[in-house]
Amino acid sequence: MNLKKTILLIIILLAGLVVPNAMADEGKFTVQDMHDTLAQGTAKGFLMSVTNPDLIASQDFYLASNASVPNTLRNSSFNSFEIVSTKLIDDTTHQTTAQLNPGEETVLITSGWHDGRWRVEAVSLNGTEVGTDTNTDIEAGTDTNTDIEAGTDTNTDTEAGTDTNTDTEAGTATNTQPTRIQPTTAPAMNNGLQGQIVFQAYSGGPIYVINANGTGLRKITTGMDPQISPDGTQLVFTRWEPEYALYTINIDGTNERKIVTGWRQMKSPSWSADGNRVVFSYQDGGRLNDEIHHINWGKVRQSGSGKSTRIPDVARDIETEHGITTYRIPMDAYWHLQQIDLLGTVLIDTPTGSRYSYGSSFHPQHSTEIIYRGDRGLGLYDTNSQTSRSLTTDYRDKAAVISPDGTKIALSYWQEGHWEVHVLNSDGTGRQRLTETPMRVTITEKRSWNNAAPAWSPDGQHLLFITDRTGEWEVWTMGVDGSNQQPMFTNGALDGIEFEYGGVDERMFSWK
Hints:
Layout: H1 3-26, H2 31-51, H3 59-62, E1 63-68, H4 71-74, E2 81-90, E3 93-100, E4 105-114, E5 117-125, E6 128-129, E7 196-200, E8 206-211, E9 218-222, E10 224-228, E11 234-239, E12 245-250, E13 257-261, E14 267-271, E15 277-287, E16 291-296, H5 297-303, E17 316-321, E18 324-329, E19 332-341, E20 346-350, E21 358-362, E22 369-374, E23 377-382, E24 387-390, E25 397-402, E26 408-415, E27 418-425, E28 432-433, H6 439-445, E29 451-456, E30 462-467, E31 474-479, E32 486-487, E33 509-511
Helix pairs in contact: 1-2
């Protein structure tokens, strides 16, 4: 039996496992039931290709052309799976949660409607999407020069110090056109808010657009850190699979174009005020893996080098047993900024002077200024003089965004084990904390809320942010002074969309 026939038989068998239940529950088999059934069959077929070596060749059949799949699944040792839950999110999005080697690994499969059939768009393992940063930053009191940027991909063969910029392509067009979903029918909210909001559910996952009044939700594409162009017509975003690449796409989901490739783990793209340039961060150099070291103190004494032997300040997990000390030197990847001139697809070096430059964002009023997070706080880079100056000296300042009028900065702040939203003047003064967990919640629930990833409204009077105060991640809004904190979409427009914030400078929202 050839491969296509085998795949078709698998789908028919899988569909037969779920159709009777749908018919029994509803009394009749609807179009929605059919799509739910077919989407489940696609997810199950993919899982079978992961857990059965004889079916590995069929894996690409289930995948969309731009699907992101962890390498650990493509080359896995899993031999069984168990479906935990399945649900149809909307007309063209479906999610399946399963356990591999049940009880060991959890996998989330997001499927979409492509060219007349369901295909797997994204796969996350234990909550980690391809291209998602998962490590946490070093807390206060540690050497900030080892502030580890989370999410360094250790599955590639790029070594520390290797120049990864040799295969850069500019202006390459892609034929991948994600299928757009029709706007939802959620009723408009009378919130008085204007504009369109683009958001990601999680890094590397679905990217959506919705009107600020809660109408017109539609999926645009997949990727990370989407940002709307100054004229509101396009988005810029990045993907890490099947290659590291920067893309633009019209806000209606048409004309997706691959602009540049070859810069490792591109993140945080941002438009210049005139719309002619995009700045982004990328990883190059440093220590890409943890290192384990041992010191045999007996041999040290024998060699007479005891006074010169010391454990580095950056060492972690220090243990001594039987005269031997073992410690771990954490990975320490270097991150830099790069610009691309979209008019001529020309790459422009952006030397900030720091080996740790993340979360780049162009000033909305001045195309010559870029704000970024360095190793010791926020910095401001001048593209004309190619020099940087410090705005803040707190390395816990993350994902900073400038207000539309350029006078304020909103950011995510790592505060005693959780995230809060802070606002300060654009010169770094006048810091104000906007979010805080009530004492009664801290005492009764023994946890602090996370509030993060702020984005400015077009008029600069509101902030959009993500919070887990209800027990799950939700989109909320507040005044720029922290007042009137409330859920943003009370009309149910985002029901069924599951958010995840990793705390690694990701840009969840863009509002124009």
